[in-house]
Amino acid sequence: MHRKSLLSLKHAVKHLPPRKKWDTRYAALHPAARLEPSPFVQASLPRLPAGGPALDIAAGAGRHSLALARRGFVVDAVDISWQGLRLAQQRAATTGLSDRVRCIVGDVEHGWLPRQNYAVILVSYFLYRPLFPLIHERLLPGGWLIYETFTLTQLDQPYHPGSTREEFYLRPNELRHAFAGLTVVTYHEGRHQDRFTAQLLARKPERAP
């Protein structure tokens, strides 16, 4: 799809309800688009254990769910868009990972996550602050959190990802403070490729003996 067509689509879906907005975007996604994990997720994967239950919040078309599945995890991929998860299912089937990726259509902005504890929780380019305590609760002792999303600095750049509302962007050090109960392995705010983001890789402490 040409850039002008993509911009027209973005404008057309801007005011749709969230589910319809994301269904429309994923229905128009090229089959070869958004296949590879983000550089931060890719760099974080070798730090993780080789297997266990994992949760991908706002999983979209499943690029990170598949990366976790290839690492040996059994992944719950949660997203509001059935169109996005349909792509994730197709990609899992194509790569022989169907038995490792369970797609769940759900609106996490209702303060909901699956009732399970996870060895890894991954959040990429999604921000809904009321989920922070629940994410912490759903992590198993010793579990890992991978989180990256936009900071307010992105609003000063020519490109912003669909919204100018400040509540969709992290304040300075907000992500670190939100998960202060975890042990930080990596934390950085700044320019990463062409985007200004906060990147957090952290681990929940083990239970006291």
Explain what you see.
- The chain has a 7-stranded mixed sheet with strand order 3-2-1-4-5-7-6.
- The relative contact order is 0.13.
- The chain has 209 residues and is α/β, with parallel strands linked by helices.
- β4 (118-124), α6 (132-138) and β5 form a beta-alpha-beta unit.
- It has one domain (37-203): Vaccinia Virus protein VP39 (Rossmann fold).
- It has helices spanning 3-13, 18-27, 39-44, 63-70, 82-94, 132-138, 174-178; strands spanning 52-57, 73-79, 101-105, 118-124, 139-150, 183-192, 195-203.
Provide a brief overview of the structure.
This protein has 209 residues and is an alpha/beta fold.
Descriptive key words:
7 helices; Rossmann fold; 7-stranded mixed sheet; disordered N terminus; single chain; about 30% helix; about 210 residues; alpha/beta
* Beginning-to-end CA distance, first to last residue: 56 Å
Overall domain count: 1
The CATH first-level class comes to: Alpha Beta
Order of helices and strands: HHHEHEHEEHEHEE
Q: What is the count of β-strands?
A: 7
Number of helices: 7
Largest sheet: 7 strands, mixed
